[in-house]
Design a protein that fits this description.
The protein has three helices and seven strands; from the N terminus they run βααββββαββ. It is an alpha/beta fold. α1 runs antiparallel to α2. GO terms for molecular function: DNA binding; RNA polymerase binding; translation elongation factor activity.
C-alpha cells in the first residue's frame, strides 16, 4: 500500500508543547510579589482539580510547573537605601516634559498599564540607584529622566 493512503495519527499534526519561558537572571520580588506567586500557584492547583479534560489538565500542569518554579526561586529583594530608587520603590520623574510615576517590582508582579514595571525593564534600570534631584540617561538621551520623588511602593514592605 502506498504511504499516501496511510492513516497518520492526529498527534503528528499537533504543535509541540513547550514549557513557559522563565526570565533570565535572579527572581527578585517584593513581599507582595511573593504572595502573588503563592496565590497563582494555588489557583492553578485548584483549577487542575476541577479540569474537565486531560488536555486542559496537561496545560494547567505546565502552568503549575512555571508558578512553582517562580515561587521556589523567588528572593525578596533587599530594601534600597533611604532616598534611593530600587526594587520596591515608587519613583516619580519627569520625562519629555511629562510627570510620571512607576513602581519597580519583580517580573511576575509587573503590570505596566498599572504603573508596575519589572526591575529588568530599561526604564527601571535607568532609575535604579538614582536619588531625588538627579538626572539619568534613557533611550540615548543624556538627561532624559529627572527624579522628583522616591517613596516605598505600597505593599512592597514585608508585613
Amino acid at each position: 500500500m502506498s504511504v499516501a493512503f496511510r492513516r497518520e495519527s492526529d498527534e503528528e499534526h499537533l504543535e509541540p508543547k513547550f514549557e513557559i519561558p522563565i526570565p533570565p537572571g535572579p527572581n527578585l520580588v517584593t513581599p507582595r510579589g511573593k504572595a502573588i506567586l503563592a496565590q497563582k500557584a494555588e489557583a492553578v492547583r485548584t483549577a487542575i482539580e476541577e479540569a474537565a479534560t486531560d488536555a486542559e489538565r496537561d496545560r494547567l500542569k505546565r502552568d503549575l510547573r512555571y508558578w512553582d518554579t517562580r515561587l521556589t526561586t523567588a528572593e525578596i529583594a533587599p530594601s534600597p537605601a533611604e532616598g534611593e530608587a530600587g526594587i520596591g520603590s515608587r519613583v516619580t520623574f519627569m520625562m519629555g516634559g511629562k510627570k510620571r510615576s512607576i513602581a519597580i517590582v519583580g517580573h511576575d508582579e509587573a503590570d505596566p498599564a498599572s504603573g508596575l514595571i519589572a526591575f529588568s525593564a530599561p526604564l527601571a534600570r535607568a532609575l535604579i540607584g538614582g536619588a531625588v534631584g538627579e538626572t539619568a540617561p534613557f533611550n540615548g538621551v543624556a538627561d532624559a529622566l529627572e527624579i522628583l520623588d522616591i517613596e516605598v511602593a505600597e505593599g512592597s514592605l514585608a508585613p
